[in-house]
Amino acid sequence: MDVSLLYFDDCPNWKVADQRLAAIAAECPDVVVTRHRVETVEEAERLEFHGSPSILVDGVDVFAEPGAGVGLSCRVYRTPEGLAGSPTLEQLRDALGVTKEEA
Fold first, then answer.
1. Residues 49, 64: Cα–Cα separation, whole Å
2. Which CATH number fits domain 2-96: 2.60.120, 3.10.450, 3.30.70, 3.40.30?
3. CB 3.0 to 4.6 Å from 49: which of 40, 42, 44, 63, for a disulfide?
4. Strands 32-37, 2-7: parallel, antiparallel or unpaired by DSSP?
5. What is the rounded distance in angstroms from the CA atom of residue 60 to the CA atom of residue 3?
6. Please, what is the end-to-end C-alpha distance for the chain in angstroms?
7. pTM score of the predicted model
8. What is the pLDDT of residues 34-58, one digit of tens each?
């Protein structure tokens, strides 16, 4: 499974998502994570980048909400604990279709 982490340097939240994805990839050899730094507004528009961090699974933004804007901004995720800068480990596992027992 191809997982892409899209981010921009000025957003600190991508590092949390990166650590969580790395933990899943370490448990699941089928999960391959690549990182892509988005550098310009034009690139953000071309990629339909909904903010940092964005997680794409096989090219699809699995957390995209209808009507979400694109651009170089930090993204907010709805988690069980409230709004956060990154999905929880469990939300990422669910999005990737990986259970803790499989990992």
1. 10
2. 3.40.30
3. 44
4. parallel
5. 9
6. 13
7. 0.90
8. 999 999 999 999 999 999 999 999 9
Q: In this structure, are strands 32-37 and 54-57 parallel, antiparallel, or unpaired? A: unpaired
Write out the two tokens for 5: 């982490």
Q: What's the rounded Cα separation, in Å, for the pair 29 and 98?
A: 11
Distance CA 47, CA 6 (A): 9
| Residue 39 identity (one-letter amino acid) | E
Enumerate the β-bridge partners of residue 79. 82
Q: Copy the structure tokens of residue 70.
A: 């694109």
The single residue listed with the structure tokens 């699809």 is 60
Give CA–CA dist 87/80, Å, rounded.
Answer: 10
